[in-house]
Amino acid sequence: MEPADKFAASLSLLAPHADGGLDGGDDNSDEVWIDVIQKMDGIYADLLTSQVQLEDKNEELEEAHQFIDSILSSMTDVLVVCDLDCNIKQVNAALVSLTGRDKDDLLKRQFGDLVHESDVAGYHRFCDSILDHRELADFELSLTDANARAVPLSFNCSWMRDRRNRVVGLVIIGRSVGELKAAYSKLDKAHQSLRETQQQLIFTEKMAALGRLVAGVAHELNNPISFISGNAYVLKRYGQVLTQYIDALESRADLSDLQDTRERLKVDKVLHDLGSLIEGTVEGVERVSDIVHDLKRFSSKQSEPKSEFDLVPVVNTASNWVIRSAKVKPKLFHNVEGPVLAIALKGYVHQIVVNLIQNSVDILDTVEDGEIHIGYRRENGFICVEVRDNGPGIDEDILPHIFEPFFTTKPIGKGTGLGLSVSFNMAEELGGKLLCANRAERGALFTLMIPMKEEG
Ligand SMILES: Nc1ncnc2c1ncn2[C@@H]1O[C@H](COP(=O)(O)OP(=O)(O)O)[C@@H](O)[C@H]1O
Ligand SMILES: [Mg+2]
């Protein structure tokens, strides 16, 4: 029984005696009084309990209010709660400060009153969506700030429902587009700088590799240059012979004399050799220019577009550069028949192969009869370039770390720990993969997977 009902019941207990008079001499009346007093005591105790409960509830309510208020006022996003006619029912401190109106003023207005006059069309679109009962996300609308300027905000709008799940209003949350844009641009800048750092890293590794390769490249260049210079020397001599012969012609000696001179000067041999000498020289010059081109591509920062090309000469040049600059030269086996076409960037393939061969050369430094084998196979739309050596292989406990940047087991000055990490990223950029494993026999096996041209 509720305390109020109990109170009413005890009053009705008193009533018959009040009608009939309560005389003190009656035995019965004492009992009635005691009963009444006990009942009153009970009611009083119940009232007290109710009072305490009520106060507790009040306190909880107050705390809930304060909690909600503190959330609302610490929100940096703007909050507007409206009924279905867009009459404002609740706002937060961020909206008060943005509009420069006080809370009581805002609570008398409609949401539309806050929209800047330049964005009436946007507000109408917003109203249409509400009428269509669509929840809105990321719509932009400009509100009027305290100085009557338009402030673009990005809004999310969701339905507010009562206990019976009926839609009774809208909860609209807005964030300054400027802030969002600033956050995006900050993110963009961070991304950009990360990319630049990565590019720098690739470049640093390239330069380090280039330093190690200089001897090999010089050797490559020496070869064609030596036969260009040899040819030029012979050509110079031949030039002298031809000049002498022409001089003889011009001195109008008789024909038998001329024949003697021709034989003495070996003019026929000169004429015969001339073609191949010039051809050889041109070939030598082309070879030098190819090497310089490879060198430029290897050291330059610009990236060429992806294209389909034969991997074999690129892999060949890269591996020869490394082997020729190595102090201890392992045997290189690179036997392949015909071209191996893949879609990639020549510069990337070159750099990855240089890194892989360099690592094998480094590890084979102390191995007798070191061998490096390069092979190719096709697998699921990829060309797999396999580089394997007969070194000690990679310790199982460091195997999971070798693609991490700056991971190296080499002494300072010998290893940067960047070769494999940079190569791994380049392989991914090519749409391929770089994998490593230990061979059952002995040594390490690296597999570079590069996309092939799609069939058809
Ligand atoms: N063929 C290989 N055999 C054994 N260990 C290898 C081989 N290739 C790479 N490694 C290991 O991976 C590490 C990381 O290689 P890398 O990223 O090229 O950096 P760095 O060559 O500068 O050390 C090497 O220090 C070495 O311990
Ligand atoms: Mg390396």
Head-to-tail CA distance between termini: 87 Å
Bound molecules: adenosine-5'-diphosphate, magnesium ion
- Tally the helices: 12
CATH superfamily of the largest domain: Histidine kinase-like ATPase, C-terminal domain
Total domains: 3
The portion of residues forming beta strands comes to 15-25%
Rg (CA only): 46 Å
Q: How would you summarize what this structure contains?
A:
With 456 residues, the protein is α+β, with helices and mostly antiparallel strands. It has helices at 3-20, 27-74, 93-99, 103-107, 111-114, 120-131, 177-250, 255-264, 267-299, 311-325, 346-364, 419-429; strands at residues 78-83, 88-91, 136-144, 150-161, 167-176, 307-310, 331-333, 341-344, 371-379, 382-389, 433-438, 444-451. It binds adenosine-5'-diphosphate and magnesium ion (MG).
Structure description:
The protein is α+β, with helices and mostly antiparallel strands and 456 residues long. The protein has 3 domains: 3-72; 75-181, 2-Layer Sandwich (Beta-Lactamase), CATH 3.30.450.20; 304-456, 2-Layer Sandwich (Heat Shock Protein 90). The chain contains 12 helices and 12 strands. The chain has helices at residues 3-20, 27-74, 93-99, 103-107, 111-114, 120-131, 177-250, 255-264, 267-299, 311-325, 346-364, 419-429, and strands spanning 78-83, 88-91, 136-144, 150-161, 167-176, 307-310, 331-333, 341-344, 371-379, 382-389, 433-438, 444-451. The radius of gyration is 46 Å and the shape is elongated. The protein starts with a helix and ends in a 5-residue tail after the last strand. Mean pLDDT is 85; it is low at 15-24. The structure holds adenosine-5'-diphosphate and magnesium ion.
